[in-house]
Amino acid sequence: MITVLKSNATDEQRNQLIKWFEEQGVKVHVSVGEFQTVLGLVGDTSEIDMDMLKLLDIVSDVKRISEPYKKSNRRFHPEDTIIKVPTKCEEEVEPGNVKDGFALCGGGNFAVIAGPCSVESEEQIVEVAKRVKAVGATMLRGGAFKPRTSPYAFQGMKADGLELLSIAKKETGLPIVSEIMNENHIDLFEDVDVIQVGARNMQNFELLKALGHTKKTILLKRGLANTLEELLMSAEYIMAGGNEDIILCERGIRTFEQHTRNTLDISAVPALHEMTHLPVIIDPSHSTGKASYVRPMALAAAACGADGVMIEVHNDPPRALSDGAQSLTPDQFDEVMSEIAKVREALK
Amino acid sequence: MITVLKSNATDEQRNQLIKWFEEQGVKVHVSVGEFQTVLGLVGDTSEIDMDMLKLLDIVSDVKRISEPYKKSNRRFHPEDTIIKVPTKCEEEVEPGNVKDGFALCGGGNFAVIAGPCSVESEEQIVEVAKRVKAVGATMLRGGAFKPRTSPYAFQGMKADGLELLSIAKKETGLPIVSEIMNENHIDLFEDVDVIQVGARNMQNFELLKALGHTKKTILLKRGLANTLEELLMSAEYIMAGGNEDIILCERGIRTFEQHTRNTLDISAVPALHEMTHLPVIIDPSHSTGKASYVRPMALAAAACGADGVMIEVHNDPPRALSDGAQSLTPDQFDEVMSEIAKVREALK
Amino acid sequence: MITVLKSNATDEQRNQLIKWFEEQGVKVHVSVGEFQTVLGLVGDTSEIDMDMLKLLDIVSDVKRISEPYKKSNRRFHPEDTIIKVPTKCEEEVEPGNVKDGFALCGGGNFAVIAGPCSVESEEQIVEVAKRVKAVGATMLRGGAFKPRTSPYAFQGMKADGLELLSIAKKETGLPIVSEIMNENHIDLFEDVDVIQVGARNMQNFELLKALGHTKKTILLKRGLANTLEELLMSAEYIMAGGNEDIILCERGIRTFEQHTRNTLDISAVPALHEMTHLPVIIDPSHSTGKASYVRPMALAAAACGADGVMIEVHNDPPRALSDGAQSLTPDQFDEVMSEIAKVREALK
Amino acid sequence: MITVLKSNATDEQRNQLIKWFEEQGVKVHVSVGEFQTVLGLVGDTSEIDMDMLKLLDIVSDVKRISEPYKKSNRRFHPEDTIIKVPTKCEEEVEPGNVKDGFALCGGGNFAVIAGPCSVESEEQIVEVAKRVKAVGATMLRGGAFKPRTSPYAFQGMKADGLELLSIAKKETGLPIVSEIMNENHIDLFEDVDVIQVGARNMQNFELLKALGHTKKTILLKRGLANTLEELLMSAEYIMAGGNEDIILCERGIRTFEQHTRNTLDISAVPALHEMTHLPVIIDPSHSTGKASYVRPMALAAAACGADGVMIEVHNDPPRALSDGAQSLTPDQFDEVMSEIAKVREALK
């Protein structure tokens, strides 16, 4: 951490501040310049409140040099984390890597999570599960608890939806992914393999803490207005509780552009890969809000090194109870899968 | 709702769609143009999924005409809602209106909510409470459960903090305002008069639903990347549960500008006053993140018709455990109060 | 400037870099820490390319400590700049300060610039000029060259519009303000007292350079996505040419919020007052895009210490050729002026 | 266009408005609902001012249905436009399509524009030109006039830089691309094959108009805060003047995220392909600001169907006079080119 003093700071004030820093256990290196003096703080500065420092009359600026995220930081954990989700599906070829009874994500292994936005009926979820499995999806997604902007909109089938997902899991062997909105529901997610935290709950710290005490893989979606650093700080909340099985998901951020529902921040893929060892997947469905943009965005994800994609697939999109406009038909999904495979093969 | 058909839609397709709309209980008025046909839908269209409609081959666009918020909509409730919070303080002069045992907010009554970001000790909270009461604050704020980006940062005194707030309430008569982060904590908030929902939880729909079943006034803060319409939809979640005592709070939105912590959207005041009957207050402390900008922003709020302000005051800002950089000293707060009073008097 | 070295930098590499810095004429202070070494650079670092430095293998981060703006920096020019625009109007009372033949802006003097978005006819501009002068406007605005998103929209009366403004100036004595879009038009602006640079041209550096060589006061509007620092850097372009008569104008930034046309960044007023000695005015018309929000935003501007406002007034808003929706009638403007006067009187 | 009337509009008012619309030459279809009446306007509504309409007392909302861009609209020009830039290079294999003496962009042909941010010397630009040509670049870029935020930063070699580009063109046969900042410089660009309009000048309408009267291909970059629709409206300015040879370029938009210099809006590729027939290329260098993100973003561009990329390449990035941090070395560029070729081959 660097503390810049104003030129009007007296020697006494400066020495007082240096003494205070030393009491906090950090070493101070002083650089005296013509217009300002710079204090370089060395040691564990995580307890020092930057905002407080800035308030002092003699301080002109304070800058942090090291990242505030620790357990997720690649600096201290250089190898890619590979997430392993138990599956009953057999090993498959690219894309959608499955090995030794696990669907993998990260470290060169590409996860394909597909399924409807909302679970609507046993028939629907089982049919979609079979269809997406047939062309290489490695996990089945389906919303049971749905966060909706309006209290008057369909809120999901809730616990019944989770039961239908379990049936689809039994029928196909695919591990299942579903979103949680309330820590009190954790028990209901016993048979769910990957618990999703939605964008709106990315900074629901109470929920994150509770999930840190589970043994489930967490799929953590980036909030609509959250920085990559904040995404990693939310991962830290889960990791601090002991659960280090986290998949990060970029799903579009909110910008001034209104043509697409959100703006897919594709550069989050190389950026997060540099910052963290956790795997990063892309959700081309929610980020664009348009079925016709899902294919090109999924291919972009595969080409730029994402560790997977999460795609909405519905057997009958125009009749879907939510987010129909962005869902692919199974046939369209099939085509995307075959092109993803080609891109990944080409870049091997 | 308006549905625009593509020019290539056949008469049969058009009639089929019209029939489907009529089955949903809405009347359809058809305008045939040279390049496109427009269907005007009249009646309750809240059940019709716009995104789904847009997916149909023959549909080129769908536009909603009426607002999706109902209970908070000024159209159906033209008079200002006046929130009444029980207080033991006596009637006071401007600003910070107190009448008949209630601190008021809305309909020309100006609420002044002041206090430290975090409750730190009995001595601190009682001292601040006395100081802010003396110059006209009508409610005491203090954080007990603190949402922090980092799991390694101070998380608040939790239940102990709420108890200290109760002591300050007893000593001064001021009603108390504190933030909730978890529906499981509602019982702990029994003595809290106004429960705050923070920006990060504005779309924590499970929490909103739970608060809809309480009898407490809710202070609902706008999320960092949420539109005014979404803020009202979150108010709807609370109102749909039966609790209509809501104060809306603009506290800065996230933009590209980095000089201030957030960007205070001051035009939210006239905009929300047009859209809704609920009162709207401004938080100049969190929106700017700088103590020196609090005074000008509080005066702007008073001048443009806000129904109150929420200001961080700390007896010793440089030593505050959180957000010290944006807190006023009691003396600075005193000055702001006297200037707010002048502005409000001038514009009466 | 601070340069942080990676822990793997060898002593030789470090010494080489230090030597290079010293060749550039800056002194280097070294702080060796456990995990990293920090080089504090003292002296004129404006020639050192931060991005280039960051590229070096041994460098982990580079941070600038001093502001890149110089002539506009309050640090080197603590007193407020007061802009003086020659006027033939007599001295007036608050608001809209006129003294000794000059309309003033800055240093406690409040400028009121009012008039139609576009000049449409002699009758229109003269009538509006008389009306706004009567209630205290100190300058007349009127667009002759209009930047329009669409090439098919009305582009202004151009040179003819400037002549009509001159007539209105002769009739009322009010100095005139009009927007320039092309450096080749500078000669046409001879009789214009304040030349406006619109938001879209804030970083049209060629235009800024050309205006730096004129003797006119420049009204520089902040771009829709420009930071406050960039606004000051654009002012530097003009000042570097020798013209230091600049009024800064906040007119709304582009955010995700769509209810208002732009988001008025009201905290730009105290922020710019801290950063620079140049005066700062607010444009409540373009920032909100709605006539009904102009009054509350103009009052907010007056209350928070802005050095003036720029308000669109039209004698017949519904028939205005551009931006009718945000224009006030002369009667509405009258009311705003009287309330601004009250607020300024109250806060004296 | 749709005009929604308020429920309190009288029959007389409604009929008056309808009569006025009919005088403007548009047909009106009326849909009377319980709460509101909707007027569907059919015909050429481009002259009707939406903002003005909204101002009327009886009007509650106005919505435009058809797009405001015409010449660039794919609706009226369904086939892809293929831009042909004369070249002396021979035909090449993928990527970077050259045929019959033209470098192509659009309609399945992929343009690769590469070169340094700034032209610095003859030796530099000729060396880079040879290197990028050798691995398949089809055009050479080099900045001669540089838009810099600070007036104190290097502003480019100007006319001398253009001459050095001509030398490099002669030596290699590659067509050249360079940025213009002032319409008065058009004559200097005689030997330049593609004139670039930078992000900051995207709405410099005077410059766009002047370029509309040239015969040069224009590379139009999206502004930092401009919507896709605005980008097309700026293309309309050029096309309205008679010049329809335009390449659109997405180069990152400004958002709250600070980790990357800008946020690459990769979904602009499929979105613009749907909206317009003009080709769309991606600039992975300026959008991310980091050399290490250029490769993954260029691959994403190739995979999602972009019509080309524009990449900064410098023979000695750490010593580059501008934007060194985001430039590739020729070796790195070589690798990106070979991977782009693989992706394009795979997706053929």
Q: What is this structure's SSE topology?
A:
The structure is a homotetramer of 348-residue chains.
Chain A: E1 2-5, H1 11-23, E2 27-32, E3 37-42, H2 50-55, E4 59-63, E5 83-86, E6 98-99, E7 102-105, E8 111-115, H3 122-134, E9 139-141, H4 159-172, E10 176-180, E11 194-197, H5 205-212, E12 217-221, H6 228-240, E13 246-250, H7 268-275, E14 280-282, H8 284-288, H9 291-303, E15 308-312, H10 330-347
Parallel strand pairs in A: 8-9, 8-15, 9-10, 10-11, 11-12, 12-13, 13-14
Antiparallel strand pairs in A: 1-3, 1-4, 2-3, 5-7, 6-7
Helix pairs in contact in A: 3-4, 5-6, 9-10
In short:
Four copies of one chain form a homotetramer. Chain A is α/β, with parallel strands linked by helices and 348 residues long. Chain A contains ten helices and 15 strands.
What does this structure look like?
The structure is a homotetramer of 348-residue chains. By secondary structure, chain A is an alpha/beta fold. Chain A is 32% helix and 19% strand. Chain A has ten helices and 15 strands. An eight-stranded parallel β-sheet of chain A has the order 14-13-12-11-10-9-8-15. Chain A has a four-stranded antiparallel β-sheet with strand order 2-3-1-4. A three-stranded antiparallel β-sheet of chain A has the order 5-7-6, with no helix packed on it. In chain A, helix 4 (159-172) links the parallel strand 9 and strand 10. Chain A is elongated and about 75 Å long. The mean pLDDT of chain A is 91. Chains A and D meet through helix 7, helix 9 and helix 10 of A and helix 7, helix 9 and helix 10 of D.
